[in-house]
Design brief:
285 residues; mainly alpha; 2 strands; 79% helix; 1% strand
């Protein structure tokens, strides 16, 4: 009942649904209008005007946008928790037969479902765009797996943070800061290799960067291998590190399943920390 109530609150608020979808559209339009040509020119300087270049570049950029969407939509969905705190509704729920754990679970499950649905909306639009420029349909199984892990990873971090945040203003400020930083930390707006080495390590350690890496693997790796097929393998490896498709940890190169493991560990750690905080008496009301 609580999960259904939270879902209805979100989807009945047409403005909130509209702006959540608008975030998806803006992320995609950022590529179409601004980032696409710049990235394509950079790749063309290396490989020339080869077939499939546009689709490869689109896959790289859109993958980052989808990863960012999976995080931003989860943030929007979690605001129900904060709103209920400010209005005192959580105390009303706790005085009813609903237990503290059921209440926590309802916010977590509902925000995760909303994040997944909104992310799939962005994925569908991205696939339609890719097909329109000659791209191919990505691996659907890996796409679903990555979306679920990405949303749950973002949600687990938010679950932990919202235990300590009491006001809508504080949560909105947090969303503004993390949304701004995430675009850079995921390597969406600038290539990772032009950042200072210390910042590059922040990128490698930021869990959602691995979400972007997984989406890039799904959307762009095959296309990149084709357009770099006539060049030495070192060129492709350097590009993969530069765009954040893989990460270099002092010689150890990450891959899709390593990144999946990072997201899974993050999910377990932050949900665990959140539950521990509540068990130790930290009120979430």
């Amino acid at each position: 009942m609580l999960i259904r109530r939270n879902l209805l609150l979100f989807f009945k608020d047409r403005a909130q649904v509209f702006f959540s979808l608008l975030v998806v559209l803006i992320n995609i339009m950022l590529f179409v209008l601004f980032l696409g040509n710049t990235m394509e020119d950079s790749f063309r300087a290396i490989v020339g005007d080869v077939e499939g270049l546009g689709a490869a570049v689109a896959g790289i950029a859109l993958a980052g946008m989808i990863a960012l969407t999976s995080m931003s939509t989860s943030m929007g969905a979690m605001t129900t928790n904060i709103t209920d705190k400010e209005s005192g509704k959580i105390r009303d729920f706790l005085s009813s037969p609903y237990s503290r754990w059921k209440l926590l679970l309802s916010y977590t499950v509902s925000s995760s479902l909303i994040g997944i649905l909104m992310s799939f909306a962005g994925i569908l639009l991205s696939i339609v765009y890719l097909l329109s420029i000659g791209g191919e349909i990505p691996n659907i199984f890996l796409l679903i797996l990555t979306t679920v892990l990405s949303v749950l990873c973002a949600n687990s971090i938010l679950f932990f943070i919202t235990i300590f945040v009491k006001s809508q203003g504080a949560f909105s400020a947090f969303i503004s800061v993390i949304s701004t930083l995430s675009g850079f930390l995921m390597g969406i707006y600038v290539p990772i290799d032009i950042l200072p080495e210390s910042v590059q390590w922040v990128v490698r350690l930021f869990p959602m960067s691995h979400s972007a890496a997984m989406f890039r693997t799904i959307f762009a790796q095959d296309a990149l291998e084709k357009i770099f097929s006539d060049l030495p393998s070192a060129y492709l490896e350097n590009v993969k590190e530069s765009i954040g498709l893989v990460f270099n940890y002092n010689g150890f190169i990450s891959n899709f399943w390593f990144s999946a493991g990072v997201l899974l560990v993050t999910i377990i750690v932050f949900y665990g920390l959140g539950l521990l905080a509540v068990t130790k008496g930290k009120s979430f009301v």
